[in-house]
Amino acid sequence: MANSRTRKVSEEIKKVVGELILAGIKDPRISKLSSVNHVEVTNDFRYVTLYISSFDPKHDVSLTIEGLNSAKGFIRKEIGKKIKLHYTPEPIFKPDHSVEHGMHINEILGTLDIKHDDDEDDEEDEA
């Protein structure tokens, strides 16, 4: 389990990169509907893995990752300005498909609920 300092640094990095996605980076490949869902910082604070998702159904998250990778130096510099650490961590961007996965599971559960409601109606009719 991550210690308290690692958790705090992760949350601060998440906040900084989230703000940069919204207002700081002017790359057209980066969707403004993208967000940082999860952040993992190594124990020595040398690397940070940021899991990115896009809420725009017309936009491919791989384009956003491409844009963020091209702005990696700028992002690292901004993290260093906002968070005082001995080493500024090197950002690593990965797509996060947990939102799409959750929506898919929700759709499946929705179909199960419909079938379950129909079964209850049949039982009430028989009684």
Task: Record keyword descriptors for this entry.
single chain; about 130 residues; alpha+beta; three-stranded mixed β-sheet; globular
Q: Could you characterize the architecture of this molecule?
A:
The protein has 127 residues and is α+β, with helices and mostly antiparallel strands. It folds into two domains: 4-96, 2-Layer Sandwich (GMP Synthetase, Chain A, domain 3); 98-127. Helices cover 56% and strands 17% of the residues. It is built from four helices and three strands, in the order αββααβα. It has a three-stranded mixed sheet with strand order 1-2-3, with helices on one face. A hairpin with a 5-residue loop joins strand 1 (34-41) and strand 2. Helix 1 (4-24) crosses helix 3 (72-82). The longest helix is centred in the C-terminal third of the chain and has 29 residues, at 98-126. It is globular. The mean pLDDT is 82.
Derived structural class: alpha+beta
Low-confidence sequence ranges: none
Largest sheet: 3 strands, mixed
Count the helices. How many? 4
The best one-word shape is: globular
Strands, count = 3
Secondary-structure arrangement, i.e. CATH architecture of the largest domain: 2-Layer Sandwich
Rounded radius of gyration (Å): 20 Å
What portion of residues is helical? 55-70%
CATH class of the largest domain: Alpha Beta
CATH topology of the largest domain: GMP Synthetase, Chain A, domain 3
The CATH superfamily of the largest domain bears the name K homology (KH) domain
Arrangement of strands in the largest sheet: 1-2-3
Topology pattern, helix = H, strand = E: HEEHHEH
Average pLDDT, rounded to a whole number, is 82
Beta-strand percentage range = 15-25%
State the separation between the terminal residues, measured CA to CA.
Answer: 53 Å
Number of domains: 2
